[in-house]
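Lab notebook, bench 4. Still working through the backlog of constructs that have no structural model yet. Next entry is a single chain of 193 residues. Request: give me the structure tokens for it.
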Amino acid sequence: MTPAVIQLAAEAAERKSAEVTDWGARIAWVIGLLVFIAFVYWLMRQGWKWRGALQSDLPELPAAPEGLPDHRLALTGRYHGSTTAGQWLDRIVAHGLGVRSRVELTLTDAGLEVVRPGAGDFFVPAAQLRGARLDKGIAGKVLTEGGLLVVTWEHGDTLIDSGFRSDRAAEHAAWVEAIISMNPTTTTEGAER
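Model written out:
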């Protein structure tokens, strides 16, 4: 073997024997990343609590009265949240209104019963219903045009838009018509943003 070949073989051996991983630095980066992620989640939680504190003047949500009349309409689907009416990004989190969940909606002559497994149920008396429309989005949820049933109702001094999506979206139009027919002051205006 020539000296050049021996030198190339020695250099190749040195490159192969170099340490591949610096475990100390890698563990430090992983721990730093986990601490950063925990900090971001903590900030998000604090923001949610702060928003709830700002909305603490909202009265408790009413429960459904005993002996409701027969239902006009019923649906199962998803509850996507509530916002201040006309402000589709101003999520309301007080009293659990910001919690997404499955939902069972029942419309009776007495009002709208909202049953949410895993979240607080509430009832909107018929006199408090202010409108219904088909829309495409509400606070963090955007769907196709008309893919969301938005019910506007009054609670205390606040007008609230609550967004629902039925498992069968074709039902939405019937809900809009039924809610509007219950109260002559209800409207479908405000769907355009």
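Notes after review: The first helix runs from residue 3 to 16. Residues 186-193 have pLDDT under 50 and may be disordered. Flag for follow-up if needed.
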